Fold this protein.
Amino acid sequence: MSDIADDDEVTRAHALAKIGRQLGADELARSEALWKDAVAARAGSAAREVLDLAYGDHPRQRLDLYAPDAAPPARGGRPIVLFVPGGGFTGGDKRKPGSPFNGNVGRWAAMQGWVGIVMNYRLAPEFAWPSAAEDLGDALAWVQQHAFAHGGDPARLVLVGHSAGAAHVASYLAHRAPRGHRRLGARAAVLLSGIYDIPAMGDRPSVRSYYGDDARMHGERSCVVGLCEQDLPLFVAVAAEDPDGFHAQALTLLTHLQVRRGRLPDFMVVQAHNHYTETLHLGSGTGELSPALARFIRRHTDGPRARA
């Protein structure tokens, strides 16, 4: 049963407070119930969906594509938002039967006039670090080859990751492209409630299942230093009701970025949201994150190509 009777923001806030800041299956289900109706009501705004496109041989190497029904611009294609969802490194899916999530992020991109792509990737413990970063590299290679056929411009691509997905985006960007991939171009990246400093959260079973039980390896598998050594524009965010560890992760990354680059990246604390609803609400037409993300993405996909 839903924690709310309608979409009133005050009622949602009370329901969110009852859920608390912990992570778990019950908290996820209750968080989804807060936004399912509001997001599903606008799900038809993305008129064209192409599902389960293969970017590799493994069954998890699939992606869904969402695009506006209108023809793309005469010169070139539309900007592309490639979303890497979370799932605690061991779970998660790009699309849930009977649910608008996580496809809501792809539909949200299509509502902005862009091509939205939501990808799956191989999961721990069967596939450990750096398998998901390798999969992201393969998905980007697929985009380079096939995006124009779907109205997208691969030269105007922004990576977006949430939770474990943000960790995978950060890993792809921070480390030398795994398995000999050249680092395929993105104009910017959005990191939502991710893990970047692995030793700080290395005691969590889900983190160890992906990054390994040998704590001596966690430092070199972290992303903070590598992210600071390149100048890709970043948008970093956490939810106000995230567990404390995610706030600490963001602060660590922000501090290092400021020292290395001499300035802070775009940063936001997403008020009135928890770890799950931070992305679950996208596409509902409400909240402060959507317009902030849209401004950031437009800033880095309009005009001449930015350095990557």
About this structure: Confidence is low (pLDDT under 50) at residues 1-5. The beta strands are 48-54, 62-67, 78-84, 115-119, 152-162, 188-192, 234-241, 266-274. Residues 190 and 235 are 5 Å apart (CA to CA). The two ends are 46 Å apart (CA to CA).
